[in-house]
Specification:
The protein is 39% helix and 13% strand. The chain has 308 residues and is an alpha/beta fold. The protein has two domains: 17-108 and 216-306, Rossmann fold (3-Layer(aba) Sandwich); 114-214, DNA polymerase, domain 1, CATH 1.10.150.170. Strand 1 (31-34), helix 2 (41-49) and strand 2 form a beta-alpha-beta unit. Helix 1 packs across helix 2, helix 6 packs across helix 9 (198-214) and helix 10 (216-230) runs parallel beside helix 11. The longest helix has 17 residues, at 198-214. The chain is globular, with a radius of gyration of 20 Å.
Length: 308
C-alpha cells in the first residue's frame, strides 16, 4: 500500500532507511512502533511494507512533526516523548508488538530551523527544546545552573575535557549580561578552543546543553527497558544513534541487559539479557548515502532480537 504525506517539504532525510526497515519488519501483518516520527520517512517506509491489517504506532514530542502525518488509517500518531510509549500503547490496548524503531537525535528540520536554537550556524534564541511546552530550556540552563552543574553537563554530555573552564567562563560572562542567544554563547566561549578545533568542540557544547534540556539519555534508558517488555519473542529493536553516549547505552543494553555492559550468565553459560545483538558491530551508512546525506556519517545502527 502507498501512504501519502499530508504535509509537504523536506523535514528530515531518513538515515539508513532501507537497512532499518528491512531489519525491523518480521511480520507483514504485525504491529510496529516508530518512536521518532519526525518527517515521517521511516514510518512511510514501514507502512509501505505492511499489509492492510498491519498497524503502526508513531511518537513525536515536536508538534511541527504532525504536519507530516501520512493519510493512512493503519497509523496512530501520538504527541509524546518516547519515554512514555509503553503507557500509551496500553491505553490503546496494545501489550506486545513485533518491533520498535528509534532514530535518535535531532531531525534535519530542527537543525535547519534557526529559531529553535539547536545549531551553531544561526543567531537565534537559546531554546533547544524538542517539546516547546516543557519548562526547561537552554537559556535557563546557561543562566541559572551553578558552576558545578554546568561543568557536569559539559563533561558528561559533551565529553569535554575542559568542562570546568567552560563552566567558569560562562558564569563570569553571565555576571555581566545574560546569555540569551546562540551568538551570545559562542562569544562567551571565544578564545577557549584552538581555532582548528573550535567548530567541532562548539558542536559538543551545544550537544551537551541539548541533552540536558531534553533529558535525552534518561529517556533513552527508559525506552530501552520498556522495549524489552513490549517486543514479542523474535521481534526486533532497531536503534539509530549519532554520538557515543547514546550508542554505548544501546550497545551495553543489547549485549548485557544493563547500561554498564556487565554480562551475567546462567548455569549453562548463556548471557542473561532480554535481547541478542543481531551483529557485534554497529551498521553504518554507505559512502553513497553519506554523500547524499552528510548527517548519516555519524549514524550507528544496532539491532536486537528479543529472546524467548
Amino acid at each position: 500500500m502507498n501512504s501519502q504525506l499530508e504535509g509537504s517539504g523536506e523535514y528530515h532525510i531518513p538515515v539508513l532507511l532501507q537497512e532499518s526497515v528491512e531489519a525491523l519488519i518480521t511480520n507483514l501483518d504485525g504491529i510496529y512502533v516508530d518512536l521518532t516520527f519526525g518527517g515521517g520517512g521511516h514510518s512511510l517506509a514501514i507502512l509501505d511494507r505492511l499489509s492492510e491489517t498491519g498497524k503502526l504506532f508513531a511518537f513525536d514530542q515536536d508538534e511541527d512533526a504532525f504536519r507530516n502525518k501520512p493519510n493512512d488509517k493503519r497509523l496512530v500518531l501520538i504527541k509524546a516523548n518516547f519515554r512514555f510509549f509503553e503507557n500509551y500503547l496500553r491505553y490503546h490496548q496494545i501489550h506486545t508488538v513485533d518491533g520498535v524503531l528509534a532514530d535518535l537525535g535531532v531531525s534535519s528540520y530542527q537543525f535547519d530551523t534557526g529559531s529553535r536554537g539547536f545549531s551553531i550556524r544561526f543567531d537565534a534564541p537559546l531554546d533547544m527544546r524538542m517539546d516547546r511546552k516543557q519548562p526547561l530550556h537552554a537559556q535557563k540552563v546557561l543562566n541559572e545552573y551553578d558552576e558545578k552543574q554546568l561543568a557536569d553537563v559539559f563533561y558528561y554530555y559533551g565529553e569535554l575535557r575542559n568542562a570546568r573552564q567552560l563552566a567558569a567562563k560562562i558564569v563570569q560572562i553571565r555576571r555581566q549580561h545574560p546569555i540569551l542567544t546562540t551568538t551570545d554563547l559562542k562569544n562567551a566561549l571565544k578564545g577557549i578552543f584552538k581555532p582548528q578545533h573550535e567548530k567541532d568542540l562548539m558542536i559538543q557544547v551545544f550537544q551537551a546543553i541539548r541533552i540536558e534540556v531534553n533529558g535525552e539519555l534518561d529517556a533513552l534508558k527508559e525506552m530501552l527497558e520498556q522495549s524489552a517488555r513490549v517486543i514479542k519473542p523474535g521481534g526486533k529493536l532497531v536503534v539509530i544513534s549519532y554520538h557515543s553516549l547514546e550508542d554505548r547505552l544501546v550497545k551495553n543494553f543489547l549485549r548485557a541487559g544493563n547500561f554498564e555492559g556487565e554480562q551475567q550468565k546462567d548455569l549453562y553459560g548463556n548471557v542473561i539479557a532480554p535481547f541478542k545483538p543481531q551483529s557485534a558491530k554497529a551498521i553504518t551508512a554507505t559512502e553513497d548515502e553519506v554523500k547524499r546525506n552528510p548527517r548519516s556519517r555519524s549514524a550507528r545502527m544496532r539491532i536486537g532480537i528479543r529472546n524467548n
